[in-house]
Amino acid sequence: MMRTRTLKPLVGALIVGSFAASCLDVGEDRARADLEVGRGAAGDVKVRVVDGLATIRSASDSELRLWNSAPTVAIELTGETSRTLELTLDNAMPAGQLSGEPASAVTVTALAAERPTQKRYSVELTGAGPATLRFATVSALDRTAFRFAVLSDVQEAIDDVRDIYTKVNDEGVEFLLGAGDLTQQGTVEQLERYQAELRSLNVPYYTTLGNHELGQNPTLWHDYFGRGNFSFEYHAVRFTMLDSASATIDPMVYGWLEGWLESSQDGTHVVAMHIPPTDPIGVRNGSFGSRAEAAKLLRRLAAGGVDLTLYGHIHSYYEFDNGGVPAYISGGGGAIPERFDGVGRHFLTVDVHPDNGVSSVRLVAVDD
């Protein structure tokens, strides 16, 4: 695991962006918008993505397009007439496969796709009743070790982000995890540009949002990337993403968190969010607005047996400890450096096992 760097006084630039204006807003509207992610209709076929782990990008009588937020996605389809839908899954696991049940209600045929993280299918619904589609890798339930990567805080460095993806592609990771601040202001144009750049990444990117995504319309995020608060399992390791973009966690989300913590009490659990509850170096606006809330959240994470916490927001790299829970700040996507300490653009790779926990966290420099 990476050796802890000495924490030095702040000597570089402080936070640049829209933090002061945006992070004073509470997250209630975004938490409520989470509940609507993955619900809609393709013509007269009702669509519900279980746990909101994919957002509907477009839908019609003959077409359904989703953006996945997790390696495994279940899609419930309800309709009484027969029809054929062309289903496209973007941000999908390259080794994933789609199956449908019951066989009397649905038939799935794979189609050619444009890139490793896109999957296309012809889905024939017979009208014999509700059907469930399940997208997953064959090994998704295996209790085996795997590697993932962590990247956040790209913002104005979007023109150079492909350099990072090239290195991520060479690291043997299953997916990339994100801690927010992908864009400068979260505009339609910026969100679309970011998703377009992801076409050069050979693995999916599962991410929550940061304060810079709040600039134009905070719930635009849900249309493009899905929920800000969500949780999934892969190889029996639980991953929980929390929306801390407003320097707080909405009260509604604490209820969801309790369930996610309970489900992984005896297993390995990784939690990621944008703004850290506490700031190890005293950066202006670098932590939760309330120290009492920060303490409450960290107590819950520690009591829930969380194995690793990951944060962005501060544009450097720090390794520290939160009440016994290992913590890493990695804001290496290229946004203006928080301090001129030579860290530069970077991402993390994490090796994890469902029974043995986290065995390695490694910083990968992009600009050697």
Can you walk me through this structure?
The structure is a single chain. It is built from 7 helices and 21 strands. The protein is an alpha/beta fold and 368 residues long. Strands 14-15-16-17-19-18 form a 6-stranded mixed sheet, covered by helices on one side. Strands 1-2-5-10-7 form a 5-stranded antiparallel sheet, with no helix packed on it. A hairpin with a 3-residue loop joins β3 (54-59) and β4. The longest helix has 13 residues, at 251-263. The chain starts with 18 loop residues before the first helix and ends with a strand.
Helix content: 10-25%
Count of individual beta strands: 21
Cross-sheet strand order for the largest sheet: 14-15-16-17-19-18
How many DSSP helices?
A: 7
> Into how many domains do the coordinates divide?
2
Beta-strand content bin = 25-35%
Main beta-sheet strand count, sense and barrel state: 6 strands, mixed
Keyword list:
single chain, 368 residues, alpha/beta, Immunoglobulin-like, 2 domains, six-stranded mixed beta sheet, five-stranded antiparallel beta sheet, 7 helices, 21 strands, disordered N terminus
